[in-house]
Write a structure and sequence with these properties.
5 strands; 19% helix; 155 residues
Length: 155
């Protein structure tokens, strides 16, 4: 069966064939991109905005830009299907830093306004995290991150 009608010239028939090829190619790319698990380091999440959730509100000193703080934290790759969106854990520990420098922008942004004794869950999109380059081998490019942060001290 031909896509061209009897009244179509050779140029129009060729254009229709090219459109059909482009549509088939787009469909093939879309289908091949659908595989994989959302927990996989090779399947970064997209379009998840920055957000914070206070799990426990602290009562001590408040963290603000330029202040030295110490936190306990755990970092996870975002997973749409995991409880609390916490996919694979990539890091955890105690970290002293100055709010606004020395860490990825979303981490600092997530700590601002916390009070000592508080715990906050922070979702960080790639633009406020490690971006397209990631931090191999544990954090792939364009990964959305989830941090659970406990503010221990504000100096």
């Amino acid at each position: 069966m031909s896509l061209a009608s009897e009244t179509d010239g050779p140029g129009l028939a060729k254009m229709r064939g090219m459109k059909l090829f482009a549509l088939a190619l787009a469909l093939a790319v879309t289908v091949s991109a659908c595989g994989g698990s959302s927990d996989s380091p090779t399947a970064p999440s997209v379009n998840v905005p920055f957000s914070t959730l206070d799990v426990r509100v602290g009562t001590g000193a408040e963290a603000s830009t330029g202040r030295a703080v110490t936190v306990n934290y755990a970092g996870y790759l975002y997973s749409a299907t995991a409880p609390e969106n916490k996919g694979t854990r990539f890091d955890a520990g105690t970290l002293p830093f100055t709010v606004g420098s020395g860490v990825i922008p979303g981490f600092s942004q997530g700590v601002i306004g916390m009070r000592v004794g508080g715990t906050r869950r922070v979702i960080i999109p790639p633009s406020l995290g490690y971006g397209s380059q990631g931090s191999p081998p544990r954090i792939p490019g364009n990964a959305t991150l989830v941090f659970e942060i406990e503010l221990l001290a504000v100096q």
